[in-house]
Amino acid sequence: MAKTRKYLKRTVAVSAAALAAFALQPASAGAAEGPAGNGGVDTKIVGGTPAEEGEFPFMVRLSMGCGGSIYAPDLILTAAHCVDGSGPDDSITVTAGVNDLEDSNAVTAQSTEVTVAPGYNGQGKDWALIKIDKELDLPALNIAKDASFNEGDFEIAGWGADSEGGSQQQNLLKATVPFVDDATCGSAYGSSFIAEEEICAGLVGEGGVDACQGDSGGPMFRKDDNDAWVQVGIVSWGQGCARPDYPGVYTEVSTFAGDIEEAAAGLGS
Ligand code: ARG
């Protein structure tokens, strides 16, 4: 218990920063806990369940309170709003290789440099690459290079809040969220939603399952035709968490695949 509480304290400031960075994030914490229409199973991420050991070996936790995915042995893909801009940066600790962040088997690495999406200004283009000081001996997550995977059911995972206004998690949680088309997402969010750069997912009209504060930067992914995981999104923002009429908004990875590749090359990978 004491351990958990200490961990929570560390992330409070970060959550506040993440909230401030996003106009659409209400600062209020509230309700939204409880059964998520999944038959009364104990619900987490929001509306998720614990990940199996080693199920998502490409998942990492970042010390500022975000998620990320292994793009290459020494590169982490995350959200632009999780980092401080491009350039040398040794402030970020990456925790990898475990579901339980307190697990002694955790592998840690330190950031050396960050590249934020060219033209990022707080709306859309919410991606960044973090170069780290060692090569992780863990599988990378391939990114979608075209729009063909931008449909169907997606997996999300993270150590973020398990309810709107809830606490960060010590153990990795996962959930499945269906694709939401641009028209539906646009009618929820108006001009805040940039269809060419963002992709939405969630249970519209129902709610209960979603990413939430602290999941930002983590991947949304699905299986490709060879049954391998492919990343289609990066957790970016939403109005609250798991609200029936507000799906989660994710960076549309396929749109930026070329830019991400270029940024990776620029970081010497
Ligand atoms: N911006 C949040 C963060 O920094 C992620 C919010 C995702 N919200 C959602 N409803 N899907 O962690």
TrEMBL record:
Residues 1-31 form the signal peptide. Gene3D superfamilies: Trypsin-like serine proteases. Keywords: Disulfide bond, Hydrolase, Protease, Serine protease, Signal. InterPro entries: Peptidase_S1_PA (IPR009003), Peptidase_S1_PA_chymotrypsin (IPR043504), Peptidase_S1A (IPR001314), Trypsin_dom (IPR001254), TRYPSIN_HIS (IPR018114), TRYPSIN_SER (IPR033116). Residues 45-265 form the Peptidase S1 domain. The keyword Acetylation does not apply. This is Serine protease. Pfam families: Trypsin. One of its GO terms (biological process) is proteolysis. It comes from Streptomyces tardus. GO terms for molecular function: serine-type endopeptidase activity.
